[in-house]
User: Fold this.
Amino acid sequence: MSRKSGKYQQAKEYYLKALYIIRTTHGEKHSETATLYVNLGEMFRSLENYPEAIKHVKKAANIWKAIYGEENQLVASSYEKIAYGYQTLKNYQESLKYHEKALNIRRAIYEETHPDIALSYKNLASDYEALGQYKKALEYHQKALDILQDLYVEAHPQIVSSYIGLASVYNRLEQHKKAFEYQRKALDIRKATFGEAHPLTAESYYNLGLLYDNLKQHQHALSCNKTALNLFQTLYRET
Assistant:
């Protein structure tokens, strides 16, 4: 057994003992029981056992629903964790279903401009992109970006993430100029925020190189790829 596996086995034994005590003391329908189910779910996720992770978080969601009702942030957060599990398993229809559930709760309890609603829109965009529904993906990426631009300065990481998401979908739609526009924005922000010698800046150069290639601007593509390679070699060279 590896050291990592041994550590998680110890954690599993601890959580199961704690779960037994809490269930014996408070019963199944208690918030601490739900929290332990979530912790077990996170542990199984770390072990890449996603079906078990989903199963335990579903138990937590059902408990919180019984305690607080459907329209509660803990329930929404649980649905989001379940959706991430299904995404990892490439079951995008189930992921979409749970991301929609999370969004519906958040829209019921928050104003439309809340950052968690923007997050839900981005999650849905990711599902729709994976399902090949690119126009729906664009719609939800744009909804997220509109909220984030009202909440944060342009250089905020969530806005950069939205630009990259939009670039990805436009690229799939073969609208390479639009994709380039958003990927360029991401690069400019990362350079201004982190400087040239940063992994995220290098990543943006690489992404831009791919788009230059799609635009048949091969010299520019080569230049970006060389810049990305040089940065990665500088950042990760053996010492």
